[in-house]
Specification:
By secondary structure, the protein is of the alpha+beta class. It has eight helices and eleven strands. The protein has one domain: q2cbj1_9rhob like domain (Jelly Rolls, Sandwich), CATH 2.60.120.620. 30% of the residues lie in helices and 21% in strands.
Length: 275
């Protein structure tokens, strides 16, 4: 365990972003970064998170009996509250600082974490924007997407639509067959560039809340294991929910927060601030 503790110390170390990388993110609202975490840390967390997802997962229907959303992935959220080991990853200053620097904010809070496991044979994840689900007052929110293994195209890595955060149409669509159809057509007609690439072990991506993205099916015989953390500006304020999903998110991920006030609850700690 001493060796593991030493290896995990990188979670508190800085990752150097170049001005070009920051500019790329702000223009396109996504970026893939290499060597964010080393293989030994990812291997360690692949085992830890796999075991916790297996313990906490509540979806046990065969794939053939699920709807499109449920075929896309198994999901377990706020694992940091269930495991001190996972909390160390979710609370990583290394990751939180990247998020803050990409967005250009003075610090970030946790919104929530989420494990996304796409099973062998698991279906595609339809086009969507995450912030449809979030009762947040502005777009200073970003998700880090951390594959816990090499992720070839056949396993269903993220596909991004560069600069699609500028669109207002499609923002009212939840993840569904309808969002896949409507957003795909909208992006095609708008000439937006789609980027889908394999992820090397150690690569991670960051994408903003209003960026449209999707993922293909997992046609391999292995689980696509991904851990995500959603960060928001430490000064983010709660907005009045615009749909039932945003109301559910308020109740679940920031209980006690007040509309118009900074989301400063026990579930939303500041994870990085240089001051």
């Amino acid at each position: 365990m001493e060796k593991t503790t030493t290896e995990l110390s990188i979670l508190g170390e800085s990752y150097t972003l170049t001005p070009d990388q920051i500019a790329f993110y702000r223009e396109n609202r996504y970026i893939k970064l290499k060597q964010v975490l080393p293989p030994e840390v990812l291997s360690y967390y692949a085992n830890v998170i796999h075991d916790k997802v297996k313990e906490l997962n509540t979806m046990h229907l065969p794939l053939a009996e699920r709807d499109t959303y449920s075929k896309a992935f198994l999901q377990v959220m706020n694992l940091w509250r269930k495991s001190e080991e996972i909390k160390r990853l979710v609370f990583s200053k290394r990751l939180a600082r990247i998020a803050a620097e990409l967005m250009g904010v003075s610090g970030v809070r946790l919104y929530h974490d989420q494990a996304l496991f796409k099973e062998p044979g698991g279906g595609f994840t339809p086009w969507h924007a995450d912030q449809y689900y979030w009762p947040l007052s502005n777009d200073n929110a970003v998700t880090v997407w951390i594959p816990l293994q090499e992720t070839p195209l056949a396993m269903g890595p993220l596909e991004f639509s560069a600069q699609s955060h500028r669109l207002n149409n499609g923002r009212g669509l939840k993840i569904s067959d309808e969002s896949e159809r409507q957003i795909e057509q909208m992006l095609r007609e708008g000439g937006f560039q789609h980027i889908v690439e394999p992820f090397e072990l150690g690569e991670a991506s960051f994408h903003s809340g209003w960026l449209f993205h999707r993922a293909g099916a997992n046609t391999t015989n292995k689980m696509r294991q991904v851990m995500t953390v959603i960060y928001m500006d430490k000064d983010m304020r709660l907005k009045a929910p615009e749909n039932s999903n945003q109301q559910a998110d308020w109740d679940t991920w920031c209980p006690g927060a007040e509309v118009g006030e900074v989301i400063d609850t026990a579930l939303n700690p500041v994870l990085y601030s240089p001051s």
